[in-house]
Amino acid sequence: MIGFLRGRVVIRDVKSILFDVNGVGYEIFMPFSELAHFLPSDKEVILYTHLIWREDLINLYGFGAALSRDIFRILLDVSGVGAKVSLNILSHIRANELLLVISKGETRKLEEISGVGKKTAAKICIDLKEKAKALLSRDSNMLTNSDFNVVEKLSSVEEDALSALINLGYRSNEARVAIEKTVSLKNDANVEEIIRLSLQLLAKSS
Question: Does position 152 have pLDDT exceeding 60, yes or no?
C-alpha cells in the first residue's frame, strides 16, 4: 500500500492531478473540493494516498490530509459505496463535517449528494457511526455532544480557514486552537488573514 507521496503537481484537470515524484508521473484522483488547493507548481507537497488494485483497474486516490484519506477508506467499507461515490461525498462535505453528519445520523445531508440515495445514506450512517466517532476522537479529542456543538459554532470564514490548514497537513485540533487565538486577537479578519496569522502561530509552536 502506498501511504503517501511527496512531489509536485505538474498538471491538474477536473478529476485528477499528474503528480511528479522523482521523475515518475502518477495520475491521482482527488475530491473536487481538494483539487482547488493543488495548482501546478515547483513546490513539493505531500499527498496521503489510497491505492485500489484489481485485475481490470489500478487507481490511485490522493488527499491533502490523512483524515480525508481515512474517511475515504471507511466509506469504501460500506456495501454499494465505491470510490466514485466516496470521492463525490468528500467533494461536497468536508472531512470534519462529514464525521459529524455520520455520527449524528444526518442522512438528509447525504441524500442531497448525487449517487447517494436514501437507503445508501442510512447504511453509511448506521455502518460507520462508531468508526466516525473514533476518527473524530483521534483527530480532535472530542466525543461529547458539547464538543460537537463547539465544532458547529465556527463561522463559515473560520471553517474555510480550518479546511485550508487541514489541507496543508495540520491536525484539526491544533489548527482550531490557532484559528481561535487569531480570531480573538482580530475578530474582523477575513479568510486569508486568519490563515496567514494562524500559520504564524503554528510555526511558533512547532
Answer: no
SS3 category, 94: coil
Domains and CATH numbers, the chain: 4-64 (2.40.50.140), 67-146 (1.10.150.20), 155-205 (1.10.8.10)
pLDDT tens digits along 101-132: 999 999 999 998 888 999 999 999 999 999 99
Cβ contact 75:103 at 8 Å: no
Q: Which position has the grid cell 500500500?
A: 1
Can you tell me the distance from the alpha carbon of 60 to that of 38, in angstroms, rounded to the nearest whole number?
Answer: 16
**Direct distance between the N- and C-terminal alpha carbons of the chain, in angstroms, rounded to an integer:** 30
pLDDT interval class at 139 (50, 70, 90): low
